[in-house]
Amino acid sequence: MILYYAHRVRSTSKHMNNAQQVGGDAKEDRPPVERLFPFVRRARLAVAGEPLLLKLRKHLHFLLVTEDLSPKRLEHVLRRFEGVPVLQYMDVKDVEAHFDFRNTKMVGFKKSALAASVYRELKHVGRRLQSGTGSSGLSQETPVQRRK
To answer: What is the pTM for the complete model shown?
Structure first.
């Protein structure tokens, strides 16, 4: 049985064109990101509550906001959490089902390898609102002037 499966995988990979091998249909074959949420919950990497999120802002890998967040509130969140990547995905019921946070529209993920894996997968299915360097995605550093 195992040999047949290995042969089957090998034979199908020969006949795939280059676009399929690179990731042409990878979105359909990708397992759902929700499979990682029980591990996040058990490791206590998910944080909720705006005061706590603001306090831990420098220790957050990314911020997950729900799709039912109002545009005015979303703008407020993007201003307060500048420098933290923000992704929009799920709704309040999904957050409650996966993380057991009631009436929560913002969930922060503490920096870790697991949070990096969740972020990498959520970038493909969620909507990226802000990168880690600022709202425009560009670094907002001022040029250094040299003294003469």
So the answer is: 0.68
